[in-house]
């Protein structure tokens, strides 16, 4: 089974993805980490040197490459991955899609401490970050909410993830 974890930066996709993959004993892929490894550069460097458009093409290529070559995995997808091209439709066709939905307030409290490694927010002053998250979250919700399974940050646990993924 392929499980795609989607949601805004900071919602916990990598954290939950690792735990879920360990529990199910299937591989875990962090889409950003695979892109970094393939390119030999950090996501921040790719954005700075090649631009976001190039990153989005790489993201799509790596998503397809990993998906076509593996039948079983948990994948933590970057926050923008389901929002470009028709990636969300592709993910839905290929496996179980899970949106970890975290409120903008909660995202802000996490992201304000972790801006550096995220090119989209790195240069946004702290006092403008909340407004940026609210706007971007609103723009992206239309993609995230297409996930087959939606779990709020408050209700998420390993048990709920497994229960919903296998019984939806
Ligand atoms: C992005 C989210 C990041 C990473 C890139 C762009 C986005 O991943 O893919 O910086 O557009 O939301 P995380 O969601 O893992 O931070």
TrEMBL record:
Binds 1 Mg(2+) ion per subunit. It is found in: Cytoplasm. Its EC number is 2.7.1.71. One of its GO terms (cellular component) is cytosol. Its cofactor is Mg(2+). Mg(2+) binds at residue 14. Substrate binds at residues 32, 56, 79, 140. One of its GO terms (molecular function) is magnesium ion binding. Keywords: Amino-acid biosynthesis, Aromatic amino acid biosynthesis, ATP-binding, Cytoplasm, Kinase, Magnesium, Metal-binding, Nucleotide-binding, Transferase. ATP binds at residues 10-15, 118. GO terms for biological process: amino acid biosynthetic process; aromatic amino acid family biosynthetic process; chorismate biosynthetic process. It catalyses: shikimate + ATP = 3-phosphoshikimate + ADP + H(+). Gene3D superfamilies: P-loop containing nucleotide triphosphate hydrolases. It comes from the Bacteria. Pathway: Metabolic intermediate biosynthesis; chorismate biosynthesis; chorismate from D-erythrose 4-phosphate and phosphoenolpyruvate: step 5/7. HAMAP family: Shikimate_kinase. Belongs to the shikimate kinase family. Monomer. Catalyzes the specific phosphorylation of the 3-hydroxyl group of shikimic acid using ATP as a cosubstrate. This is Shikimate kinase. It comes from Flavisolibacter ginsenosidimutans. The lineage of its organism: Bacteria, Pseudomonadati, Bacteroidota, Chitinophagia, Chitinophagales.
């Amino acid at each position: 089974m392929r499980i795609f974890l989607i949601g805004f930066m900071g919602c916990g996709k990598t954290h939950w993805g690792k735990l879920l993959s360990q529990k199910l004993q299937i591989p875990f892929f962090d889409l950003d980490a695979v892109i970094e490894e393939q390119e030999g550069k950090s996501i921040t460097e790719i954005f700075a040197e090649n631009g976001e458009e190039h990153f989005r093409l790489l993201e799509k290529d790596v998503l397809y490459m990993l998906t076509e070559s593996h039948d079983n995995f948990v994948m933590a997808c970057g926050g923008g991955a389901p929002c470009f091209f028709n990636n969300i439709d592709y993910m839905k066709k290929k496996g179980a899609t899970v949106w970890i939905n975290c409120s903008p307030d909660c995202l802000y409290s996490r992201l304000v401490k972790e801006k550096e490694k995220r090119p989209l927010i790195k240069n946004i002053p702290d006092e403008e970050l909340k407004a940026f998250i609210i706007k971007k979250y609103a723009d992206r919700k239309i993609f995230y909410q297409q996930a087959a399974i939606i779990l709020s940050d408050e209700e998420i646990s390993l048990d709920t993830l497994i229960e919903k993924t296998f019984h939806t």
